[in-house]
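Predict structure. Chain length: 105.
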Amino acid sequence: MKEEERTQLRNARTGAAIESAAARLPKGWVVSIDIESESAWVSLSDEYGDDIETDGSEELSDEIDGAVETAIIRAARRHGDDIKKEPSSTLLPEVVLHEPGETNE
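Prediction complete.
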């Protein structure tokens, strides 16, 4: 896979992770993406504004997904909800890159 294709795939996964986070994040919880020169990381805050430690990852999309999972689990524990964790493979849609002009047919 070419470097440009890897970059496109990484960007698509990050975009999908952001959209998934917006749909799945418990009410009041906040995932923030901080960016500086040649670096980016994810921060998580609970509904009270307290910072919650998350696991780091090589890929920003994995950090976002991990923060959302942490938020879901902690919010459920705080509020006594049943936790039914989705398999991680269902969190993000499959992303397939094609050459310009190529289709799925």
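Summary: Confidence is low (pLDDT under 50) at residues 85-96.
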